[in-house]
Amino acid sequence: MGWWPWPGLAGIIGAVAVAAFVVLENHRRKAQDAVLLDVGLFQVPTFTWGNITALMVAVGEFALVFVLPLYLINALGLSTIATGLVLAAMAAGAFLSGALARHLAAWIGASGTVLLGLGLEVFGVLQLTAEQAPDRPLWLIVVALVIYGVGLGLASAQLTSLVLKDVPVEQSGQGSATQSTVRQLGSALGAAMAGAMLSAGMAFNSRDLTGTTAQLADAARSSAGSAIPAMRGQGVPGQVLDPVVAAFASGTRWALVSAIVALVIGFLAAFMVSKSSRGDVQN
């Protein structure tokens, strides 16, 4: 990398590009030319808050699906097939609740359904965070994933209705495409955030290790935990390996806490959608 701070430079270039895009699109909109995205849509409160909700749901989801398989395989020693079966609990919960979301929305509204879903997501990830220790029963992780999946199904099924609630019909295509783009952005941010928090958490929780254990912890951190199964296969003694696994579990908790923060922000944004909708009705 040399002396160039490439990540920071890339971030600056990205920010400048986004700002230039907004200025250009706003200029074209005022000139009544065709635009790729009508930035005036963000003056619609439900559209803005709804997209923030969609972003945070995606961040939380992909933070979870990035870090949890690493934990199950590397810390708990599960096979890839067993890990897939455990993660299927999340899919099962989402499948069941997704089918019921439409009926629930008819009762409590789209925003109420999303709020309920996000609440269950937060509860599920909180439960997962509490279970990040190698000696915890696996079935508790499965239960937490089912709860999270139920919440994810409820929230995701009604997010489009939430985002497009007050968008003019002729701009619904732009609105839907924006939501899809926001979700893709959230998926990338979620995985990046989880990876960064996993690494930072491992570094923090292995700072007092010394000797061979410290070297193994550094190898585990730089490989996102994938070096741990190899250490087991090489017969590394438990008293040396256990602190490394514990540090990895702590790093996983850091990543899950960051997912919780994202989901709480999403919950607050969904609440603002509900509040904006009530204000429109009263007006």
Automatic annotation (TrEMBL):
Instruction: Provide this UniProt record's keywords sorted from A to Z.
Output: Membrane, Transmembrane, Transmembrane helix, Transport
Q: Name one GO cellular component term.
A: plasma membrane
Major facilitator superfamily (MFS) profile domain: residues covered: 1-278
Compartment list: Cell membrane
Gene Ontology terms for molecular function = transmembrane transporter activity
Name the membrane topology term: Multi-pass membrane protein
Which ranges does the record mark as transmembrane? 6-24, 36-59, 71-97, 104-126, 138-164, 185-204, 254-273
Gene3D superfamilies, per the entry: MFS general substrate transporter like domains
InterPro entries found in the cross-reference section:
MFS, MFS_dom, MFS_trans_sf
Family annotation (Pfam families)? MFS_1
* Descriptive protein name: MFS transporter
Q: Which organism is it from?
A: Candidatus Corynebacterium intestinavium
